[in-house]
């Protein structure tokens, strides 16, 4: 097994990531460390590819169709049931307690048609029968008109078992085979992103209904962000994402707590690009942590690529997730989130 330290090459503006599990036995990975600046150490992975079958090593995921719409004249704060950011959603779970029904929610971002990401810890707490029968996903592609669909399956990234509970899970939406979704996924990040055009997006229920909210972010270097969490005593074991981006809402001087599922996005190229996926913790005037999505795109691509499942036996091809690390439901899975 390759060290998780060999997962990502990153700096403030330039990134190139590669998932070690993409390597076959015919490929050799050599890792060493370099000092990227005065206060952070980045692991640089040098790839020597010995291909016995003429296979090539790709460092970037496949191109995919994404939302190219632009949102102009943005104002921070509650933007209501806006049609902007249609790929921003929530997962709702109905929890039955005697004669009462409580609703638990967690953030979603549609990253590929039929597939969204969510927080792994939140998803792991949902019993599979409840996930399928008593949960749904909601997005708002048109002003004041939520779009709701049932859920089909989920898969949790394997580092949830070993390294951190703040990682991602993939959620598969339950759609008819020929259904065309009324909106497109968010665009994926590339090797570069502009740190001067960052925003945090999420949902709020301040008005007793789920509405979108927006914050302008100032970029915070990961090394400084980690130092803040260590000094503040928030560095619990397995709580920190393996790969992070951080930002602070400079125009909001309050101390607040952001829940799982906030999205760090950039519109420096005109289109909205997903940079990070938020985890529960300090927000607003404090540095908020986001899972660095660039590091996980190869995994998302593999897990949702139907072509990779075509050669599997029928019993393994019930959903696209059978090629991944599925979490199996047991009778003991009855906790809430």
Describe this structure in words.
- The strands form five sheets. The protein has a six-stranded antiparallel beta barrel.
- The longest helix is centred in the last third of the chain and has 11 residues, at 222-232.
- The chain is mostly beta strands.
- Mean pLDDT is 76; it is low at 1-61 and 309-337.
- The chain folds into three domains: 4-49, no CATH class; 82-185 and 296-323, Thrombin, subunit H (Beta Barrel); 198-294, Trypsin-like serine proteases (Thrombin, subunit H, Beta Barrel), CATH 2.40.10.
- The radius of gyration is 20 Å and the shape is globular.
- It has five helices and 19 strands.
- β7 (100-112) and β8 form a beta hairpin.
Notable characteristics:
single chain; 337 residues; mainly beta; Thrombin, subunit H; 3 domains; six-stranded antiparallel β-barrel; six-stranded antiparallel barrel; 19 strands; 38% strand; globular; disordered N terminus; disordered C terminus
Arithmetic mean pLDDT: 76
User: Could you name the ranges where pLDDT drops below 50 across 5 or more consecutive residues?
Assistant: 1-61, 309-337
Share of β-strand residues: 35-45%
Euclidean distance between termini CA atoms: 32 Å
Helical residue percent? 10-25%
Q: Reading side by side through the largest sheet, how are the strands ordered?
A: 12-13-14-19-17-16
Q: So how many helices? A: 5
- Give the beta-strand count: 19
C-alpha Rg (nearest Å):
20 Å
Tell me the CATH architecture of the largest domain.
Answer: Beta Barrel
According to CATH, the fold-level topology of the largest domain is Thrombin, subunit H
Overall outline: globular
Structural class by secondary-structure content: mainly beta
Secondary-structure element series: EEEEEEEEHHEEHEEEHEEEEEEH
Write down the domain tally.
3
Question: What's the CATH class of the largest domain, please?
Answer: Mainly Beta
Largest sheet, in brief, is:
6 strands, antiparallel, barrel
Question: What is the H level of CATH, i.e. the homologous superfamily of the largest domain?
Answer: Trypsin-like serine proteases
């Amino acid at each position: 097994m390759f060290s998780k330290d060999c997962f990502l090459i990153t700096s403030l503006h330039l990134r190139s990531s590669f998932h070690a599990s993409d390597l076959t036995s015919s490929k050799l990975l050599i890792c060493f460390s370099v000092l990227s600046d005065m206060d952070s150490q980045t692991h640089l992975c040098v790839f020597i590819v010995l291909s016995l079958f003429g296979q090539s090593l790709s460092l970037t995921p496949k191109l995919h169709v994404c939302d190219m719409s632009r949102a102009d004249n943005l104002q921070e704060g509650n933007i209501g049931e806006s049609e902007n950011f249609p790929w921003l959603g929530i997962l709702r779970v109905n929890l039955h307690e005697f004669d009462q029904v409580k609703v638990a929610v967690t953030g979603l971002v549609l990253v590929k048609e039929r597939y969204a990401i969510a927080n792994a810890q939140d998803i792991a707490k949902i019993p599979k029968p409840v996930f399928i029968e008593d949960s749904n996903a909601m997005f708002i592609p048109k002003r004041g008109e939520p779009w709701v669909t049932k859920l089909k399956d989920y898969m949790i990234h394997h580092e949830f078992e070993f390294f951190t509970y703040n990682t991602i899970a993939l959620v598969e939406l339950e759609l008819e085979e020929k259904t065309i979704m009324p909106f497109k996924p968010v665009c994926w990040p590339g090797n570069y992103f502009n740190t001067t055009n960052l925003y945090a997006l999420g949902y709020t229920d301040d008005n007793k209904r789920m509405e979108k909210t927006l914050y302008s972010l100032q970029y915070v270097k990961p090394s400084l962000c980690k130092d803040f969490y260590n000094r503040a005593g928030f560095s619990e074991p397995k709580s920190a994402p393996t790969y992070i981006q951080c930002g602070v809402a400079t125009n909001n001087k309050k101390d607040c707590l952001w829940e799982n599922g906030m999205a760090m996005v950039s519109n420096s190229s005109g289109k909205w690009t997903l940079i990070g996926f938020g985890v529960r913790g300090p927000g607003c005037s404090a540095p908020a942590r986001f899972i660095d999505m660039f590091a996980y795109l190869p995994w998302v691509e593999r897990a949702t690529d139907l072509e990779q499942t075509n050669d599997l036996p029928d019993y393994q091809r019930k959903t696209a997730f059978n090629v991944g690390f599925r979490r199996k439901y047991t009778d003991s899975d009855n906790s809430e989130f």
